[in-house]
């Protein structure tokens, strides 16, 4: 079940117009521009449910899944201090924008693989506030994301090139080494 809200159809129409390109870098820039413009123009009115966060995990809610082009739009809600372990996006590009609060993203670079062990070194950490958007393009897709706030939930919108139903999570073992684990991702109710 997807969420309904004012501005959803216009968002989908604008995204449809830019995702048909062949170059991931160009496509993600165009998707980012559409998402930022829609937020700047106050054309999106997300439903109240996206501000609610379960106490034990961040929430993932499906906004739209495009049957022809394959992309998906998700709303994610992060309680104070909630975040992800280091993970990838299963080879998909993604555009992430902050709708409410702040998020903090740390990007990692895969520098070595030894069997089941992956060396992922932190590169940059940035905090983003309302209206900020960025993209992740494989092979530079390894990152963490979290709500650094103490008092308010953060809400972010994520547009993936496909359906993000699973990903690899990297569990630290020391000295930037991690073990890879495949994780199935769940959706939360509206």
Task: Describe the model.
By secondary structure, the protein is mainly beta. It has a single domain (8-184), classed as Jelly Rolls. It is built from two helices and eleven strands. The strands form two sheets. Strands 3-10-11-6-5-8 form a six-stranded antiparallel β-sheet, with no helix packed on it. Strands 1-2-9-4-7 form a five-stranded antiparallel β-sheet, with helices on one face. Strand 5 (103-114) and strand 6 form a beta hairpin. The mean pLDDT is 92.
| N-to-C CA distance | 8 Å
Report the CATH architecture. Answer: Sandwich
Kindly report the spatial arrangement of strands forming the biggest sheet.
3-10-11-6-5-8
Could you describe the largest sheet, including whether it forms a barrel? 6 strands, antiparallel
What is the N-to-C order of secondary-structure elements (H for helix, E for strand)? HHEEEEEEEEEEE
The CATH superfamily is known as: Jelly Rolls
What is the CATH topology assignment? Answer: Jelly Rolls
């Amino acid at each position: 079940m997807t969420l309904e809200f004012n501005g959803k159809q216009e968002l989908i129409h604008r995204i449809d117009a830019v995702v048909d390109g062949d170059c991931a870098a160009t496509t993600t820039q165009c998707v980012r521009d559409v998402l930022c413009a829609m937020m700047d123009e106050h054309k999106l009115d997300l439903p109240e449910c996206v501000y609610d966060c379960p106490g034990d995990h961040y929430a993932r809610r499906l906004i739209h899944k495009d049957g022809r082009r394959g992309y998906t739009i998700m709303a994610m809600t992060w309680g104070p201090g909630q975040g992800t372990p280091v993970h990838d996006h299963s080879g998909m590009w993604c555009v992430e924008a902050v709708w409410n609060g702040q998020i903090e993203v740390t990007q990692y670079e895969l520098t070595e693989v030894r069997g089941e062990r992956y060396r992922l070194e932190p590169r940059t950490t940035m905090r983003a506030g309302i209206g900020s958007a960025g993209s992740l393009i494989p092979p530079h897709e390894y990152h963490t994301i979290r709500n650094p706030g103490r008092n308010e939930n953060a809400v972010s919108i994520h547009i993936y090139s496909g359906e993000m139903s699973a990903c690899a999570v990297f569990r630290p073992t020391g000295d930037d080494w991690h073990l890879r684990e495949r994780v199935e991702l769940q959706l939360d109710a509206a």
